[in-house]
Amino acid sequence: MSANALSRACPSLLSANSVLSNLGRVGRASLTKKVLHRSEGVGAAAAEKLPSLDLPCVEAVKMRNHFVHGGEARFDYRHEFETFAFLTDTLEFVFAVSDLIDLGWDCTHWVRERSTLTHPFKRYLFSYQNNLRRLKELLGSVDNDGQP
């Protein structure tokens, strides 16, 4: 096969692989749905401290997909390091806390306790509102097509 024929065949091969990959996931939850499922219990246990928890969860998955699969960035992750870190911390927080809740931990009581902010989860809670506000500002600069 010539180089030209091969280059013409590749886009269709990539498309076919994408379709086959998507078919293989039929009936399985997407990563976004898995993260949102884990966040439900956390959001319920800490609703007063974590309003709109779905938003950073969804954006964290979109950011992950950008870096793993090369999709479009929702905003400039490299120049918004604090928000990048917030989204990464959101996934860590949601998965760890949801596991602890599944094991019987009383998250609601823990959220209400005073803290010296020595634990990273308490720091996450303390800074959540400001980080959420900044995320919303960044996403506000994105039009309906998801492009800056």
Topology:
Layout: H1 3-24, H2 31-45, H3 54-69, H4 81-102, H5 107-112, H6 120-140
Structure, briefly:
With 148 residues, the chain is an all-alpha fold. It has six helices and no strands.
Rg, alpha carbons: 19 Å
| Helical coverage, percent range | 55-70%
The SS-based structural class is mainly alpha
The separation of the N and C termini measures 41 Å
Strand content: under 5%
Average of pLDDT: 85
The tally of strands reads: 0
Q: Unreliable segments (pLDDT under 50, ≥5 consecutive)?
A: 143-148
SSE ordering: HHHHHH
Net shape: globular
Structure description:
With 148 residues, the chain is mostly helical. Residues 143-148 have low confidence and may be disordered. The chain is globular, with a radius of gyration of 19 Å. The protein is built from 6 helices and no strands.
Keywords:
mainly alpha
